[in-house]
Design goal:
heterodimer, A: alpha/beta, Rossmann fold, 4-stranded parallel β-sheet, 5 helices, 4 strands, 15% strand, globular, B: 204 residues, mainly alpha, Serine Threonine Protein Phosphatase 5, Tetratricopeptide repeat, 10 helices, 69% helix, DhaL_dom_sf (chain B)
Chain lengths: 134, 204
């Protein structure tokens, strides 16, 4: 089962940056996709919406399962609405993780061949990793 | 409710949102990113156009169109919440041009359940739920009692919205403000109150 990671942000630039960083740290072979509003998006460049996430989920064709990572709350609302709308609940999971650290942790787990459950756990565990030691 | 009233409801809501656009943006400036009025206005303008252009005959199809349009054009939490709840609302409406008020309110309950499931917010969290939950409760109570429901509840939505002034935000971006969110009306509750105002205008 191949796993892809979708990074959903209020800023497309931010999502692309997170994908770049995760690729650099976990390897380019990890399937990562950035989703966010662009200047000409129907929301006028303001915030991510469910339609954008639906498009991305449909475009992510070369993976079996998908983990979704996001920034602030409404990215998660958009993602959960999109998953229901696209009827992909059985193969897509939203990961409650800090976006940057979680994406890195999840991408590393994917690169090591982890299951989707373990990828989710790796992302959630990123909350526990302090940056200045315990 | 017939289809012309249903479509009128959305035209009225769009008009009210436009009239209150600056007020909603200002409320959002206090605890968010100052775009709630503009965001809803853009989405509802598209909703009115989409309904105008779509064939008549099905409340379910109309409501689905409203949900899909809001989801595609309103950014942030409002688009995801209104959009996905409208799709549940649509599924509970008949594929026909009329619906009894009892069934309409039952569909509204499905709307609120969808909001709760998606947003995980409840009364007291300083969100649109502070208007939708008590208002739908009141509509159901009035209907059960056999009263003309919209006479008794049409003016209450604004009051429920005003109650968010003293609340500490628990959900959404405003939650990052903690105690500092006290002293502002939640913009999502205000726009929700405008929806009930529009509903009151077409209700019996």
């Amino acid at each position: 089962m191949s796993i892809g990671l979708l990074v959903v942000s209020h800023s497309k630039h931010l999502a692309i940056g997170v994908v770049e960083l995760a690729h650099a740290l976990a390897g380019d072979e990890v399937a990562l996709m950035a989703v966010g509003p662009e200047a000409d998006s129907p929301t006028d460049g303001l915030g991510v919406n469910a339609s954008m996430v639906v498009e991305a989920l449909k475009g992510f064709v070369d993976v079996d399962e998908i983990g979704v990572i996001g920034d602030v709350g409404s990215s998660f609302l958009a993602a959960s609405a999109a998953i229901e709308l696209a009827e992909v609940e059985d193969r897509v999971r939203i990961i409650d993780a800090p976006m940057v650290e979680g994406a890195i942790a999840c991408a590393m787990a994917v690169s090591m061949g982890a299951s989707l459950n373990d990828v989710v756990a790796a992302g959630e565990n990123a909350w526990e990793v302090r940056k200045l030691g315990t | 409710m017939d289809e012309s009233s249903f479509r009128q409801l959305w035209r009225s809501f769009a008009t009210l949102i436009r009239e209150h656009k600056d007020e909603l943006n200002e409320l959002d400036a206090a605890i968010g990113d100052a775009d709630h009025g503009s965001n809803m206005d853009r989405g509802l303008t598209k909703v009115v156009d989409a309904l105008e252009a779509s064939p008549e005959g099905s409340l379910r199809a109309d409501a689905k169109l409203v949900g899909m349009t809001l989801m595609g054009t309103v950014g942030g939490a409002s688009g995801a919440l209104w959009g996905s709840a409208m799709l549940k609302f649509a599924a509970a409406l008949p594929d026909a041009p009329t619906v009894s008020w009892a069934d309409f309110v039952a569909a509204l309950d499905a709307f609120v359940q969808a909001l709760a499931q998606r947003g995980k917010a409840t009364v007291g969290d300083k969100t649109m739920m502070d208007v939708f939950i008590p208002m739908v409760d009141e509509l159901q109570t009035a209907l059960t009692a056999g009263e003309p429901p919209f006479d008794t509840v049409r003016s209450h939505a604004r009051e429920y919205s005003e109650r968010t002034y003293d609340m500490v935000a628990k959900r959404g971006r405003a939650a990052y403000l903690g105690e500092r969110s006290v002293g502002h009306v939640d913009p999502g509750s205000r726009s929700s109150a405008l929806w009930f105002e529009a509903l009151g205008a077409v209700g019996p």
